[in-house]
User: What shape does this take?
Amino acid sequence: EKLKELGVTDSKKMDDSLIMAIGPNLSLSYPHSLLILRNQKYNEVIQSGLNMNSVKAKMHNQCLLNLSKKYPKAKLYQDQFAPSDLYYRYLSNEKEVATNITFETKGESKYPSVALASVIARYAFLSEINKMSQALGRPIPLGAGPVVDRFAEGLVREKGIDTLGSLAKLNFANYKRLYSQDLR
Assistant: This one.
């Protein structure tokens, strides 16, 4: 009920300003496990041959393991971003795998805990973007449209293409377009 009062739903349907306003309270008030995979490490992992869904599966698995160790009787719910058999195949080399997970497409709309997790994750993401923006001395635009492309082009002209390794996911289309322009 408290989450409903706060307007917690699928983070993709919420305004970022609301997420930034309620995120600190949610993070302090509800048990959760948060892992942050920074862009530089993400790029290394993708270059090693993993795909984005396998990375997501490994991160989700670790969060669920962290929570299930702390709360052994808790039920585990997860938004289904891949069929469960494929999800577990992504985890075939992991030492420990969380099991008895209820997978649900659009899980954020069916389980408050999944909605809460998506909001806390979005809050952490926005907070990291804010830190990166401060370090860079300018706001970093979000998304993959023309505004982001223009921002990246200017940044590459100013600081070189290598600066994007810590600021962007290098397997995304806008990076590939930018790299092919050879603005170095």
The mean pLDDT is 91. The CA atoms of residues 15 and 170 lie 27 Å apart. The first helix runs from residue 2 to 6.
